[in-house]
Amino acid sequence: MIVTVLKPLDEILDSISSYRKILIAGCDGCTQPPRGMREVKTLKQLLELAGKLKGKEFQFKLTSVVKQCDTVLTKSTIKPYVDDIDAVLSLACGAGPQTVADVFPDLPVIPAQNSHFVGIDDREGGAIFDSCSSCGDCVLALTGAVCPITRCAKGLLNGACGGAREGKCEMDPERDCAWELIYKRLEKLGQLDRLKEFRPPRNYQKKGWKVAP
Amino acid sequence: MTQVAEAKPAVNINEDYCSRCSICGSLCPYDAISQDHENKKIILDIEKCQVCGICASACPARAIDTIYYDRDSLLNYLRKVKPKYKSDTLVVMCKGSAPDFSQVGKLFGVSDFVPLSVPCVGRISEELLLAMLAEGMKKIDILACDEDYCRFHRGSPLTGRRVMVLNRMLEQLGYGKDAITMQRNSLKVKVDKDLCIACGNCVFYCPYGAPKLESVGGISFDLDACRGCGLCVALCPAFALDLENWERDRISNLLPQLIAEMKPPKLLVFRCQWAVYPPLNGDVSPNVRTIDLPCSGRIEAVHILEALQSGADGVMVIACSKDDCKQEGVSAKAEHVVAKIKGQLEQIGLGERLGFGSVSPRYEGQAEEAIRQFRLIIETIGAKGKSQ
């Protein structure tokens, strides 16, 4: 899922302060928990409370899009509101506000969240890890399904750098060394021979910026 | 955890009366009562006790005193409120299955009745039921939780047996058949499939494995497994879940009036109904109003914020400790929910207006002390909007 974190409320208040009628648009999509109607309503209540203390009054309307990164769904959900709002406050990842802006070119859109990465949600462990860099050239088949591009701090393709200490990265002692994870995993799978395969430098053109659906 | 100096335990065994029969120990759902092998003394481990009152109700020698809902206070309550309700039907109901009195009346088909809401009907002894009849009650309806839903495990089954035995006796005495009736009810989750976004949050959070999420057909709940803690309801991102008798709208609708009738500093307290056993005559402080929850897991940020928006100067959530929680440790999740919204309130300078207390009814006055300390904080920062 795309991992997002709510911006500081002061920052949100600043960025909406020049508008009065605001549609808070959630997204039921991939983030866990989804930034659906509950998060939308909670944000509305918090902004109203904060606004009142600052003598600022807003008129909020609330909705949530099934997937805010989808132009068709976003259009059909937000269209009924556009004539009566000054701006949209988006509770989606970075793709959401841009989708709204693409569909409604005249409507100001403000992000309520910061987007961090494509992550693994370890719900039982209570942590979310950066896991995929969307590089366009997936090597997971060779690395025991542990991504070295994302999870190795140096993004190395051909084995460990030698700087790891007790399985932890020299850049950050809390972070697991991705290549040690890869080695252990391949060992378990009986696939250590895959390490012998040389990976040439990545072709960054493969990442691309546009894909046919 | 709020600790009161030299706290008075809520349950005491009076050795002068105790005949050491150990019936109490055999009924205690928490193994809090044991018997000394040598001198046969009955020993109560108050740290294990959850104050269900089953032991006191079963003691043939009346040697066990409880400070809440004991025989005398229940009878006094009945004498006091009977004229007000102008009815000779008494409805005794467990808080766990009956937060909404009007719904309870419908279950028994009565519109006028004297309501008596207790934390577990298992604390009502045969003798007390007879004493209530002797107070002029013609009929007693008992609403218990379903047996496997009973928060104290043994309270509901025990009451079923008591009613059966008593009715046979009462029939012989000329009270007719079924002078005492009993129904069982459990309050469970309600799903609005149209609102469900199939995110699986409820599946993750439910301690009982009640929700199932399928790629075709979406969410469904095994209602036999649901124990009505309300955690899934409080966390559903799409407001697709609700809880019988603790509906989101019902709680929202209670807020404005409760807040309007308070005097500043206005403290609204959401409390787990198993963490605090309130006095039978309800709230007494003009500064405090409470909303009981089936478990602190039912607390949702929306209601906390609504209370602040409606003019509460402070909102407090009172829960059981994780070990005392009657719902598989759900209270720890509730603490996370409160901490999260508190963090957001801190950003706008209102963080101190949300308090959390973890208390137990096993010592007298823990909840009152937690509220008193919270009130001091609110009084220090002053009424809302003025000190900001």
Task: Detail the topology: elements first, then pairings.
The complex is a heterodimer of chains A (213) and B (388).
Chain A: E1 2-6, H1 9-16, E2 21-27, H2 37-53, E3 59-65, H3 71-78, E4 87-90, H4 95-103, E5 109-111, E6 113-122, E7 127-132, H5 148-151, H6 178-189
Parallel strand pairs in A: 2-3, 2-4, 4-5
Antiparallel strand pairs in A: 1-6, 6-7
Helix pairs in contact in A: 3-4
Chain B: E1 11-13, H1 23-27, E2 33-35, E3 42-44, H2 54-58, E4 64-66, H3 71-85, E5 89-94, H4 101-108, E6 114-118, H5 126-134, E7 139-144, H6 155-172, E8 180-184, E9 189-191, H7 201-205, E10 211-214, E11 218-221, H8 231-235, E12 241-243, H9 248-260, E13 267-272, E14 288-293, H10 301-309, E15 314-319, H11 330-347, E16 354-358, H12 366-381
Q: Largest contact between protein chains?
A: A-B, 25 and 26 residues
Helix content of chain B: 25-40%
Order of helices and strands of chain B: EHEEHEHEHEHEHEEHEEHEHEEHEHEH
> Mean of the pLDDT scores of chain A?
95
Helix count of chain B equals 12
Order of helices and strands of chain A: EHEHEHEHEEEHH
Biggest sheet of chain B, in brief?
4 strands, parallel
Give the proportion of residues in helices of chain A.
25-40%
